[in-house]
Amino acid sequence: GGSSAAAIFCFHNVVPDAMAGRVGDRSLHVGVSAFNRYIDWISRAYVVIPILELANRLRHRKPVGGLAVLTFVDGYVGVIRHALPVMRSQGVPFTIFPVVNGAAAPQAFWWDAVVNLNLRDRERFLIELHGDAARILESADTDSVGVPDVLLPASWQILREVLGSD
Questions:
Q1: Measured between alpha carbons, how far is residue 108 from residues 117, 131, 139, 147 in Å?
Q2: Residue 150 to residue 160: CA distance in whole angstroms
Q3: How far apart are CA 55 and CA 42, in angstroms?
Q4: How far apart are CA 131 and CA 119, in angstroms?
């Protein structure tokens, strides 16, 4: 028997293969070839539905086994440029959760601007400095100028142009 639970797949960003594992917080930026393989597998293993449909099914206690939703957190430009064409060509629904301040004034997130971010620093920034971007950027070696545009948050204008107003 299958699971009675739905799967929620959460991605952050999709970048050109040459950048994967080499830029920003490496754990957040998947290469487009790997992303294609993930989407192929997910769409074979699950019926992918819009997140609101999942919420409605859960609210009305309808079965959700075998269903999945795809989400993108942070609203990176790379998602617009590299993930969207894949999702649209395969007809797979998705949800983007942009960071409001990032979309309003796009600049590199601290975790992508910190040069050579390692696990110890990441933990210290999150625990000791409470994820406070200003304090982190003050205390770390950063290169927000050298951050590739696919690692920047998409502006509200870009999001509206690509996704429409609905």
A1: 14, 14, 16, 7
A2: 17
A3: 19
A4: 14
Residue type, 162: V
- Which amino acid appears at position 59 of this protein? R
11 alpha-carbon distance from chain centroid: 4
Q: Whats the size of the chain, residue-wise?
A: 166
**CB 10, CB 38: distance < 8 Å:** no
pLDDT tens per residue, range 53-88: 999 999 999 999 999 999 999 999 999 999 999 999
Q: Residue type at 127? A: I
